[in-house]
């Protein structure tokens, strides 16, 4: 093992571990989005199909799986403070993922090498916490958690096997649940020694608009209609949409990121502001989980969606009205409130009149509302950093 890998710091390893599920989700979403309409079912078909020779642009999923394997090889190589056996099994699982990605499934039939790599990877990621359970020198809470993790992953593996052996209609969902479940425990183990670890509110805030744009483009690409831009996010996540889970999952994830951003800003902005922002994120999660029916409306979706837009707009007013907030941020927040209010009115008019700019007005409104938390997080973080920086004396001696 190269010495440089052994010196990887915990924050770097944690970033690699957090990147793994993101790479998997984004790769699967993009790969599915480019498939011809009606040719792929994510509930019943595996991600191996997306990387197989019969898939359109199969390199997308193939590259995502290869990168996923590389990430786990790096994590296993750099991880310290855990048994060598655990690191070896985790690294072996990463290598098996790379092998499975490079040995693609043929258009018809199955590749023995691919299947061997897939099975090896699945088993390795389930079993790598076992040495953690057996090591009495580790934190008892980590050992107990590892036992729970193994039990949970074994349950998901059993579900996947049952679906595979019975040609079940939930094969794709079972595989995705297992793979995503297997990405969780490396994050926990890597981050365990990092006490009081708190993700930067700036990073969390920036993830919101990025996730929305990627999810929106993927959801639009999956629609067979000629003008998906004229559809609202509600329509793209509704029961009548193709691959509606893409937009629904995007709304839920953006809402969850908003809540986390609000919690990260809690010590730095007025309580009324971060609570309104968190409420907006929570309402967006509920709206994403309450899809519009075909040919009708969901009252829960409409009400929570409206409350989300209101909360995302009003939190800027709470910032502007607070005397404890920096003057520049108060003025900027007042301007933001006016701009967002105008965009809300534009979107409402388009909604009521069924205007031709309905979809575009909603997209602009959502992006504008998602950008302002980024601005606030950057400004308050810069202010905290400057207040903590040591001052210099007049003679420059410090």
Automatic annotation (TrEMBL):
Transmembrane found in the keyword field: yes
Domain of life where this protein originates:
Bacteria
Keyword Transmembrane present in the record's keywords: the answer is yes
Keywords annotated in UniProt: Membrane, Transmembrane, Transmembrane helix
Q: Entry's Pfam families?
A: DUF998
Q: Which residues cross the membrane?
A: 12-31, 59-79, 86-107, 113-134, 146-165, 177-194, 201-222, 242-265, 272-290, 296-319, 331-352, 364-384
Name of the molecule in the record: DUF998 domain-containing protein
Organism of this sequence = Actinomycetospora rhizophila
